[in-house]
Design goal:
By secondary structure, the protein is of the alpha/beta class. It folds into 2 domains: 6-128, 3-Layer(aba) Sandwich (Rossmann fold), CATH 3.40.50; 155-332, Dihydrodipicolinate Reductase, domain 2 (2-Layer Sandwich), CATH 3.30.360. Helices cover 29% and strands 22% of the residues. It is built from 11 helices and 16 strands. The protein has helices spanning 16-23, 26-32, 49-57, 69-74, 83-89, 101-110, 154-166, 213-223, 261-270, 282-292, 333-347; strands at 6-10, 36-40, 61-64, 81-82, 92-95, 118-121, 130-132, 148-151, 176-186, 201-202, 231-238, 244-252, 274-277, 302-305, 310-312, 321-329. Strand 3 (61-64), helix 4 (69-74) and strand 4 form a beta-alpha-beta unit.
Length: 369
């Protein structure tokens, strides 16, 4: 592996903190070829001190604004770099800051930093760069002109993976007539506070073509491959901290589809990025991730609930084939997987096989939960 591979993670929120922890894991960082990992912390909060000390104890270094060094020292933690110094020495930057800040940071800092091989931002940062999900459209990383990459949201990963398995024939021909998704989102992550809701809260359809941003993001991702999918999504927020769940209803062209329920189950079982389950309760699946995942996270792109699947073939009402079912979104584990895979590629493009799970992450990518 090459020397001088510094990676900076900007932000320590629900993605930034576990990503820093994952990339600073000694076995994983060695396999990825990371020589130094830096995380940028914006605000010196007393409640964040245990988290900062935990990341530092794993070997990561902290960057902060120069004028805030003394405030961090008062917390008992020592910054190593300023933001500007860390940026200048980084080969890959993963921006996990709050919504809107990634695009802002791109305009203020990243666009003029030619020494950095790639900048990655997370799902909410529309306009940051090309949408990307590992195992979905890996070729967008190969073009050296694509320095700015937007890792799509966790629910977009989920829907895109379902479509990857069912919406195309063996030759890659699009057989999807229509795809509808309803995303039932957790109200908060277990790491967050102060965002309680008393009951289900429905979202609005702000986009007349796609409904919510999830379907639009799926469309954008597959458009990088030359597909233009007829997808639509709705969203509802539930008063739970466990996992997002997606209800999917795919309508497939009958003349291009000769599948039954066992075929669908087999297709999902054979996909290395899909975990299947016979469990139907979010808390039980979440508990599996807590026990066996990395930082409690399942890194699969989706968890398909086998008992929920139904294949509805030609009947009195339609000549199409319909596949319906439910799948769980593994928190932000799939976003962590895509971010880590992109980091690995940009550090060592000659050694990473695009589209295949990284060997060091396989213990946290499950076939069944």
């Amino acid at each position: 592996m090459a020397n001088g591979n510094t990676v900076m993670v900007v932000g320590t929120g629900t993605i930034g903190e576990p990503l820093t922890g994952l990339l600073s894991d000694k076995n994983i960082s060695k396999d990825l070829g990371i020589d130094e990992l830096v995380f940028y912390k914006h605000s010196p909060r007393l409640t964040d001190r245990p988290m900062i000390k935990g990341l530092l104890s794993k070997g990561a270094h902290m960057a902060a604004q120069r004028e805030k060094f003394d405030a961090f020292r008062e917390l008992g933690v020592e910054p190593t770099y300023t933001f500007e110094d860390a940026l200048a020495k980084s080969k890959v930057v993963v921006d996990c800051s709050s919504e809107g800040m990634g695009v802002r940071n791109k305009l203020l800092f990243y666009e003029n930093e030619d020494s950095v091989s790639a900048f990655l931002a997370q799902g909410s940062e529309h306009g940051f760069g090309l949408p990307y999900g590992v195992g979905l459209n890996d070729d967008v990383l190969k073009n050296r002109n694509n320095r700015f990459i937007q890792v799509v949201s966790c629910n977009t990963h989920n829907a895109s993976r379902i479509l990857k398995n069912l919406a195309f024939d063996k030759n890659g021909k699009n057989k999807l007539s229509e795809g509808r998704f309803v995303f039932m989102r957790r109200a908060t992550d277990v790491s967050q506070s102060g965002k309680f809701i008393a009951g289900p809260s429905v979202g609005s359809h702000k986009d007349s073509t796609f409904g919510t941003h999830h379907a639009k993001d799926v469309y954008r991702l597959y458009s990088t491959l030359g597909y233009h999918l007829n997808v639509f999504s709705s969203a509802i927020k539930l008063n739970t901290q466990y996992m997002h769940v997606a209800s999917f209803h795919l309508v497939l062209d009958n003349h291009d589809c000769d599948c039954d329920l066992e075929d669908v189950k087999r297709i999902f079982r054979e996909d290395p990025y899909v975990a299947v389950t016979n469990k139907t309760d979010a808390n039980v699946i979440f508990s599996f991730g807590r026990e066996y995942g990395h930082f409690g996270r399942i890194l699969n792109q989706t968890v398909v609930v086998l008992p929920s699947l139904l294949v509805r073939k030609s009947n009195l009402f339609t000549d199409k084939v319909e596949v319906v079912g439910y799948s769980y979104t593994p928190q932000d584990g799939n976003s962590l997987l895509s971010s880590t895979s992109a980091v690995a590629y940009f550090l060592n493009p000659e050694e990473v096989v695009l589209g295949e799970p990284l060997p060091c992450l396989r213990p946290f990518i499950f076939t069944e939960v």
